[in-house]
Amino acid sequence: EVQLVESGGGLVQTGGSLRLSCAASGFTFDDYAIGWFRQAPGKAREGVSCISSSEIIATTYYADAVKGRFAISSDNAKNTVYLEMNSLKPEDTAVYYCASVQKRRVRLGVWLQHIYDYWGQGTQVTVSS
Q1: Bridge partners, residue 38, by sequence
Q2: Residue 80: how many CA atoms within 13 Å on its side-chain side?
Q3: How far, in whole angstroms, is CA 120 from its chain's centroid?
Q4: Which of 18, 83, 87, 98 meets the CB 3.0–4.6 Å disulfide criterion with 22?
Q5: For the segment 16-39, what is each residue's pLDDT rounded down to a tens digit?
Q6: Do 37 and 94 meet the contact criterion of CB atoms below 8 Å apart?
């Protein structure tokens, strides 16, 4: 059974930091890239970051809204992807989801949600002003 389980969300003040984790199981992790998306109340879900990694190299992607503040990384031995979020702003408040996509399909468009095969249940991040 394929599972993506997010954790690490919570309530933080403006300027604070959180680290989200996405633990994957049930598929060949090395064949997939992992993306993070978020959905704020009343807004469409949007892409945040994505990583396609191997033992040799990792390719990362960031939405303009989080560049310089968020950092994505992967521990392939643990089948886990992390999203380090720094300098958080109230507009970062959202439910954060991780999702898996076959590495070869990332070139179709990393923010195209329909190319992602599996999704986690999400973790809430709330940034207070």
Answers
A1: 46, 96
A2: 14
A3: 10
A4: 98
A5: 999 999 999 999 999 999 999 999
A6: no
